[in-house]
Amino acid sequence: MKGIFALHRQRYGVSLTALVTMALASAAHAQTTPAPQEEEPAPQVEATPDAAPEREGDIVVTGSRIIASGFTAPTPTTIIGEEQIAANAQPNIFNTIAQLPSLQGSTGTSTGTFSTSSGQQGLSSFSLRGLGAIRTLTLLDGQRVVGANVTGVPDISMFPQLLVKRVDVVNGGASATYGSDAVGGVVNFITDTRFKGFKGNVQGGVTTYGDNEQILAQAAWGTSLAGDRLHLIVSGEYAHDGGVGPGDFGTDLAGKRDWYRASTLLNTGQTNNGSPQFVYSDFAQPYQYARYGLINNGPLQGIAFDVNGAPYNFNYGSNGAPLGNGRVSNCFPGNSFCVGGDLSGAPGSGASLVSELQRVNGFGRIGFDFAPNNEVYLTVNVAQVKTNNQPSPGYNRPNLTVQCANPFLPQLVRDRCTTAGITSFNFGTSNGAFPDTRVYTDRRQYRFVGGLKGRFDVGGGEWNYDAYYEHGTTTSHIDVNNIVLQNRYVAATNAITLNGAIVCADAAARAAGCQPINVFGGFTPSVAALAYVMPQNGPMQRTRLTQDVASVNFSGNLLDLWAGPLSLAFGGEYRHEFYSVHGDPYGAGVSTLSPNSDAYPADPLLNAPLGSNWAAGNYKNGRGAYDVYEGSAEFNLPLFDGGGAGKANLNGAARVTHYSTSGTVWAWKIGGTWDTPLDGFRLRAVTSRDVRAPNLSELFAAPTVTTLPNFANPFPPAGAVQAFQNTVGNPNLKPEIARNTEVGVALANPSWLPGLSLSFDYYTIKLDSVVSTLSADQIVRFCFEGNQAFCGGFVLNSPVQGGNFINVQPFNLASWKTSGFDIEASYRWTQPLGLPGSFTLRALGTNIREFIVKAGIAGVDPVDQAGANSGNTPDWKWLAIQSYENDAFSLTVQERWFSDGVYGNQYVVCSSGCPASTGNHPTIDRNRMEGAFYVDVGGSYNVTSSIKAYFKVDNLFDHDPAPSPQTNTGLDVNPALYDTVGRTYRAGVRFNF
């Protein structure tokens, strides 16, 4: 089959072959089509680097390291070919793979755009089974890739995508075969190491709103020299995605998108009066600040300022009136919101929907066959990925103290101060006249692999070997523009008149260069004032990661038995992981800020030893490393073959791993397959013990400080406060241990209906000693409810500027359990209704029956996250494809769907007579989050035998995302699950000479 997005599943022992049987039993070739009518020979599936150079009869599946003609492993595996990748016409191969139903919670350009400090904006990484990207092992030609982030996950944008021949997605534990991180499974990119010729792809795209303009240019060249013994391949790629957003304050999104409604879970503050604690509402309005300023406490509460600085009575919504104590009647004190009214200061819509991304990739490979079926090779991959995003507009400051004597304050308000007998008041502002924050990331990767692979004879039997050494380095630079230094901001807003001039009140601040700022209205600060408050030399973070891997593996047939050869694979690996990171002195802190430093001069207002002076982006210094030693063995034992009982085999593997940080741990698997006597009917099962060692970030992370500008403080006086979340690493963490079990049944290509494929696979995963932390909100809530174990790590009522904080740290406390099943069905109809060509139907679905998270802490109840569409594990997720193609053109329709769900299964839904609301089971008036149904269409036309023009329209009906209500002022959407971009058009030309 050509040119359709056919997701080939090896269901004879791996997953069900979607349209064909790939190397079933005695088959020596891997087919991409089951149609016996076609004259075209079936292409050979290339062996992974665990094998020698490609040769007929060799089949290697990522789920196993064994090479054996006709051998199939019991672990379900989805295989996506290069033609199917091309037919989906995505600017990044990551987007194609992430559409598979078993992938849940993958990250990309649409996720992390609201963040300033995470450093993961635009990072494309896979998550299988909803277990997170850190529990999915991503490989390139069966080899590890240096991480693009301190979490250790690689960035798919850095892979040589045009040379990818196929992608194997192992839907299940594979730690015994490939090592740590393969708890959810493996995604293995296989490149074409024997490519000859010249090919390329030029593609452009744009959304229906005229943004996220996309340009993609790819080219690859390959040749063979020296009697077809020397193989040279080079490729280059350039891609640019323009991104989406930001919008403005209020509810205006970028590009006239109209789905944002400021949806919020309003906290009534009532937990035991029979009414729900949380109430869903659209168009929620924060009542502690406004776009150009709002007095939010005391006798003048309710006075706001327009763009010209003129005072007016703020429109609170909810028919609310200021009470003079920081609260508003008829509104919601738990998180300080009203409904309706003046939404002009709400910052949620001002975040980027999609990060702008630019990627450049260069790849080269040289291989020399020094003997038949033996090769020495070297690969070089150099890549750069640059992203940027806007987390929010302006600078949200809900708790500023303003002196009534401030000369910028309108005289009318100063007179009101005198009448009320006050000298200061509390003030909240979004600083709508400030430049908007922008986060820039620049990741660069240098990866080198040298190796040997081939075959040799031992005792009349043939064995395969693969040995390689890999060194990879990633440098990651993060720079944030237009972030304020908080103490300088406070000093600049506290103005007085001195000798007839308006100056900063603090003499020490004046001496350090302080320039006054007028925060009453939309007055843009002077250049000098902005340079003082938000200097353009920070925040910044510089990270360097290195990975060194030395690996050797052997495989072959140990001896011939009654039902076939006993196959064996064994090997060993050494790995060294290292990282170092440092931030700027204002964020990271130093013992002394040098007064001679032009970039970061000493300032008496700044906290020199501890840092954390920025409003966000306070990156810290740190470093860490660990070593890994591994040994593994795998076998395939044929049980019987023929005699009326069908054919069966038993597959097992074991791996022992020693981590320098956490000791020795074992992983293993045992499984088998049975080709029953029934035509096309197969059974398979596998169970395994899998491991994930804590990564560099979890072990050695420098303290990360995240600003929580509107944190809900339940302690008197309750209300929203600004606080810092301090996240630190834990070098005493131990590996996570998982138990995976999968049982499946398949019907593939029966003689009575060729082209039909059906399968059903059940899986269950139990993960213990999960590295996890409670959220800042959970820590505070559990303390408030009387659990003293959570009360020692935060301060929320500090009178000191920047004194509020919540400490969070990872521990091996939690356990997860998830189970569900995969379904696949496909049928191919050749010459439908007498027409030339073929028509194909296909559907893949994943159901999550349960995803139970236990925090492992007394007083914290388990939560089932299955069906929580505010996360990434909907009950059902489907991908369906219908396509027609012939020698001239192809047409494809694709549907993507996931089911309705809830905000969270921890909620108790009620409208009256509610039980007591708790942190474990809060009460809520509504708990339903709609699913989504997307339709994509595409097609291609063969201009010549070497040139193909194509088009693609994603989200044809421009389906809007469902609200994912917040409890703060964030953007109420879940980009990990929903399409936030809208209809997208793409077109391009491919050539292959």
From TrEMBL:
The keyword Hydrolase does not apply. A motif (TonB C-terminal box) lies at residues 976-993. Coiled coil: none annotated. Residues 1-30 form the signal peptide. Residues 30-49 have a biased composition (Low complexity). Transmembrane segments: none annotated. Residues 423-956 form the TonB-dependent receptor-like beta-barrel domain. It is found in: Cell outer membrane. PROSITE patterns: TONB_DEPENDENT_REC_2 (PS01156), TONB_DEPENDENT_REC_3 (PS52016). It is a multi-pass membrane protein. It comes from the Bacteria. Keywords: Cell outer membrane, Membrane, Receptor, Signal, TonB box, Transmembrane, Transmembrane beta strand, Transport. Pfam families: Plug (PF07715), TonB_dep_Rec_b-barrel (PF00593). Residues 73-186 form the TonB-dependent receptor plug domain. Belongs to the TonB-dependent receptor family. PANTHER family: PTHR47234, SECRETIN_TONB SHORT N-TERMINAL DOMAIN-CONTAINING PROTEIN (PTHR47234:SF3). This is TonB-dependent receptor.
